[in-house]
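It is worth pausing here to work through a concrete case rather than discussing structure prediction in the abstract. The textbook approach is simple: state the sequence, then state the predicted structure, then interpret. We follow exactly that order.
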Amino acid sequence: MARVSFDQIQEELDMEFFLERESISFRETRGTSGIQLNIKTCPNPACRDERWRTYFGIENGKGNCFVCGTSFNKLQYVNYHFDHGDTWRTTFATCEEILRDQGYRPKRQAMVQVVHGDVVLPVSDPLPLPDGSNLAYLEQRGFGPEICKYFELRWCQFGWWKFKDADGKAQTQNFADRVLIPVFDLDGTLKTFQGRDLTGTSAKKYLFPMELPGTGRYLLNGHNALATDHVVMGEGAFDVAAIKLAFDEDSALRNIVPVGSFGKHLSYGAPDGDDQLGRFLQLKGRGIKTVTIMWDGEVAALLAALDAAKRLTGLGFTVRIALLPFEKDPNEVTGDVVRKAFYAATVWTPNVDIKWRLRNPYAAEAKAKSAA
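Step two, the predicted structure:
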């Protein structure tokens, strides 16, 4: 495991797991700052009072002893407990071991160095902006600086896409007031991009650059599907980002890479394999064994997922289908709903295919809505 940071320890180390691991007596109580652990023994080597006068806040990650007055965070508690003194390197190493024991996995970072190649994006700024700020539109959807960096999102305020039409004449396409979403091939080469409107007034919510390949032959974030055997497939870019956010909150899911299909179907049939099914074959060669499809909670989307699952199963994948709430996508529900749908996903089989085609799980709600 790579050396963890203080912030990772504060965010990820499970104090209840640690106390049980070290056979330290504690009980759960509720205080003014939320749930607290009432611990029998003070960790401070100079105190070690055993009269249940030590408390640790689960929500704020801080504690204190009411006998000696010592305050501590998670890192300091571990340091005190093992009496490491000033040898903080040893304390960090111990915390790594604790995190490993509790099943911790760090959040996945971008795995491939991307290459922009011949595609020159419209004038735009990488997000977050140089001063560390982010777009309110993204922040409101939970997409902070870390997610923006991972997907290499950019803010295009006044930029234009320059291209030549079929007659060789220079043309331009206005991408102003849009978030640019780069689309990389599996080798990390930039192939195309999308522009998401932020004004709410454009007739085109998504704008695609003329004379570049369509996104439908690529898998969004597929270039990061390395050192894993499982991918989960959403539809659009923000669905994929929402899945990553949800999985980052559960260390057991951080090894699973979210990818995007850019719609409710998989492209196939290109003689040279230059389509999405061909790229899944390449991912299989990288060691991907399982694909979980998490498309919108709709009748049509589920039927399309069944079609995709059948084709992917034919390539040798184990395919699971996750059912989101009716008419919801991953970007419209909370992270716990996304995770619940993932864990409850059903493995595609011919019997499941027939069952869901005859009685679609969303059919009753769709019928009730149309009758209302």
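Step three, interpretation. The first helix runs from residue 6 to 12. The chain has a mean pLDDT of 91.
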